[in-house]
């Protein structure tokens, strides 16, 4: 089914306010969830709203909690998320990183004791829309094995890199697993197998069946051992820089909360790259798109279709799974 963007915002605002969000924060949180589905990422948008509300009910997300500064070192700051709503904490953190970058050229903020930020790409788009290069990454609970391992020890630790460009920004949003758990849950709900191997079953066999991967939390790392290694060092960086929990410590809580994250912003104006940034990016993309493709395949850069998807969904409504929308609407009663 399709629901208008404005209706989605209005419904979510009412629900969040009823859960203890101040009106302005309820509106921003609603827009961040809606934006994910509007731009083609429902697995981390409206699909996640019921999960988010359950985290609030279990006192793992505190609607009124706001992040606070712990330490400042020039271009680098360390903050506590105080277990507040992950999307709001992340939005504030990227805003603050950009503020610092205006002064130093680079701004960096490490955040401890925060919660799931939902669609990671939101914060890459936040940076590029303001004219900044944005980089951010997070850890998660253990949900991926070390290469050769048979139990979840690593997080799938998403990474975002956003680069502003006049003809269309580049925004890479990727987990360290071949598929995010949100995407696997979407396929599971629809009764579909994944298009490629998504992880391992209990016997260690690669499988396309999302149920087996989700139940065992044995997602397949991107690039096999390389993705596993990248996941490990991202976890090390976020926990060391923030002073917060590492993946194995999050795993001891029995739920995914109290995460650690890093946000980096670079100001092209301050760093003297504005005069040639677009020319270089345009040349790289032109070369990329000159590539021959197998069959009728189209060569695309990360984030290329987002504008088109956004525009179409604003006209026709946001696609929402009827069962998900029913769960959301029930929260109004």
UniProtKB/TrEMBL annotation:
One of its GO terms (molecular function) is 3-dehydro-L-gulonate 2-dehydrogenase activity. The keyword Oxidoreductase applies. It is an enzyme of class 1 (oxidoreductase). This is 3-dehydro-L-gulonate 2-dehydrogenase. Pfam families: Ldh_2. Its EC number is 1.1.1.130. SUPFAM superfamilies: L-sulfolactate dehydrogenase-like. Keywords: Oxidoreductase. The gene is yiaK. The keyword Oxidoreductase applies. InterPro entries: Mal/L-sulf/L-lact_DH-like_ah, Mal/L-sulf/L-lact_DH-like_NADP, Mal/L-sulfo/L-lacto_DH-like_sf, Malate/L-lactate_DH-like.
